[in-house]
UniProtKB/TrEMBL annotation:
Designated name of the protein: Netrin-1
Chief place where the protein resides: secreted
Domain of life: Eukaryota
Keyword Flavoprotein on entry: no
GO aspect biological process, one term: animal organ morphogenesis
């Protein structure tokens, strides 16, 4: 309301001479009397709102509660640079005349005392020392002249005011841009013949259906013809103006980054101008724009950032040039502009003190009223709210979930457990057969440790190994079988295996092995790498003939002995078994080269292992 009063005062009191187009000016004394009366009548209402010490320079009251705040209302064109398409005296001194009874003058851009530069448009407007920008006298073929004000960022525009030191133009238009001059929207048209110039009817009526459309008027042609004013109010006569907070179209209507005024036709009043062409020019003494830095109710001032750009000093956990988005961690509900009734401050996400960033999920907000989703949870937590432990960790029940050490690492035993993921409530790791303990680090009763990954604990009763006893076992049948090129060449296969498990099966010891490499194979069915069963008679195992140990690698070179019962590879007395080593690897490679050349059995000299 006070903005309206100030605007009214600006248009009705701050005049250099009485004007008919804006009503007759009143005295400063009368204005102050009216202002005092308004203050007395509304004192109780004002007191009610200011009990909480709401001031214009803060966005919170003394109790820390947020409320809408607005930057200072001011003439945002003051001392700003205006870009013009024509200025008098640029090409040398030119003559101009004011009126037949006021005489003529010279405009010379190079002489400061005779110049009328664009800076006079936005300097201090002192009626006792009037300064004007003006053009050279223009002929009828081209009378278009443009004034452009760039504001650097978005502003909420209240009025645009032009005071003339020449005759007001017969036709002109005011435009605004909301995208820094890339596109332009007409604000208002002025013409002596609206239909002819702009295809608009004179004094059109604004309704809810067209309240963001430009109108055309000829009211600016009323007296005084010279030295008059043209003033445009962005919200005057707009039906939704009292409820602009709920009308996005009208909010956009008052928003601008640039203002452009286009003069199209010089006054054609020959009665006053006569035939003197030196009077056909445009002259403006003041170009003012009333408005505020646009901050959507979330800032009380605008400042220069580190790049020298004008930005809002945002509050209410908002950010952006115009406070038009929520800050990084305050996205539990969608951004909204502040209104007189509701501040609509941004609300922090609930991340249990484990995240610094979150994102807004509109679907979750629609369903639950909370749209924050935490991202990059720390301290080994996970989930939308960082409210449970991530895989590989479990809750410490003695600490709240907000504690930075609320999640403890599972530490599942690399051999005894089936994986690294434990029960997030108890911390129990998934153990292999026969293994027990929270971290799977011990064998169950009745099991013994094998120190192997495949079967770290074996049932003593089912998998008891026959014990060697040299005094009670006849091992004369076991002869040491050493590797030689002749043995390699004469046998049917040669493979490298890793021993995985062993099981006693009625006179046989079944070894489950992983075939890692096949060097030779002469069987009908191709032998592939992978798991396979290797069978050895129990009496040979007792004599360590061969001596297989779990998790170790061996070279097996033998014949395709077929047994009626066992399905797999049978190790007999004619099979060469030796532990794998780099030396054995080199010898096998040498044997393979001989085999490929066809010289495998060309020597009678045996190379013993």
């Amino acid at each position: 309301n006070f903005d309206i009063i100030i605007s009214w005062f600006y248009f009705n009191v701050k005049t250099k001479e009485p004007t008919n187009n804006m009503h007759t000016g009143i005295s400063l004394t009368a204005f102050l009397s009216v202002l005092f009366l308004l203050h007395e009548v509304s004192s109780k209402t004002v007191t009610m709102f200011y009990d909480q010490e709401i001031t214009s320079d803060t966005c919170y009251n003394r109790y820390g509660r947020p409320h809408r705040c607005l930057p200072e209302f001011k003439n945002i064109a003051y001392q700003q640079r205006i870009k013009v398409t024509h200025t008098c005296g640029q090409n040398g001194p030119t003559k101009f005349c004011k009126a037949s009874y006021e005489g003529c003058g010279i405009c010379d851009a190079k002489d400061p005392t005779l110049a009328h530069p664009p800076s006079h448009l936005t300097d201090l407007n002192n009626p006792s020392d009037l300064t004007c920008w003006q053009t050279d006298p223009l002929d009828s073929s081209n009378q278009n002249v443009t004034l452009t004000l760039s504001l650097e960022k978005q502003f909420d525009i209240t009025y645009i005011n032009l005071e003339f030191c020449s005759y007001r133009p017969d036709a002109m238009a005011i435009y605004k841009s909301n995208d820094f001059g890339r596109t332009w929207t007409p604000y208002q048209y002025y013409a002596d013949h609206c239909m002819h110039m702009f295809h608009k009817s004179t004094r059109g009526i604004v309704s809810h259906g067209n309240e963001v459309e430009a109108l055309c008027t000829d009211a600016h042609l009323l007296r005084p013809l010279r030295g008059g004013r043209i003033a445009f109010s962005t919200l005057e006569g707009r039906p939704s103006a009292p409820n602009i907070d709920a009308n996005e179209l009208l909010q956009d209507w008052v928003t601008a980054t640039d203002i452009k005024v286009v003069f199209m036709k010089i006054s054609g009043n020959r009665r006053h101008l006569g035939t003197n062409k030196d009077m056909l020019y445009y002259g403006v003494s003041d170009f003012s724009v009333g408005g505020r830095c646009k901050c959507n109710g979330h800032a009380s001032r605008c400042v220069k950032n580190h790049h020298g750009k004008l930005v809002c000093d945002c509050m209410h956990h908002t950010s952006g040039v115009n406070c038009d988005k929520c800050s990084a961690f305050y996205r539990d509900r969608p951004w909204m502009r502040a209104t007189a009734e509701v501040t609509n401050e941004c609300i922090a996400c609930n991340c249990s003190n484990h995240a610094k960033h979150c994102r807004f999920n509109p679907e979750l907000y629609r369903l639950e009223g909370h749209g924050g989703e935490c991202i990059r949870c720390r301290h080994n937590t996970a989930g939308r709210f960082c409210h449970y432990c991530k895989q590989g960790y479990y809750r410490d029940k003695g600490k709240d979930i907000t504690h930075r050490r609320a999640c403890i690492k599972c530490n599942c035993h690399p051999v005894g457990s089936r994986g690294k993921i434990c029960d997030q409530a108890t911390g129990e790791c998934p153990c292999k057969e026969g293994v027990t303990g929270r971290t799977c680090n011990d064998c169950k009763p009745g099991y013994r440790s094998t120190k192997t990954k495949a079967a770290p604990c074996l049932d003593v009763k089912r998998n008891d190994e026959p014990r060697k006893d040299a005094r009670n076992t006849d091992c004369k049948h076991c002869r040491p079988m050493q590797l030689s090129v002749t043995k390699y060449c004469k046998r049917d296969f040669g493979i490298r295996v890793k021993i995985l498990t062993r099981t006693h099966v009625r006179g046989w010891m079944k070894f489950t092995v992983e075939i890692e490499q096949v060097f030779k194979w002469t069987g009908e069915t191709r032998l592939r790498e992978g798991k396979k069963a290797v069978w050895v008679r129990t009496r040979d195992v007792k004599c360590s003939c061969p001596k297989f140990r779990l998790s170790r690698r061996y070279l097996i070179v033998g014949f395709n002995d077929i047994h009626e019962i066992q399905k797999g590879i049978v190790v007999s007395q004619r099979t060469v078994v030796t532990q794998w080593s780099e030396n054995i690897a080199r010898r096998v490679a040498k044997f393979q080269r001989r085999q490929k050349k066809g010289t495998c059995l060309s020597t009678n000299v045996e190379e013993n292992a």
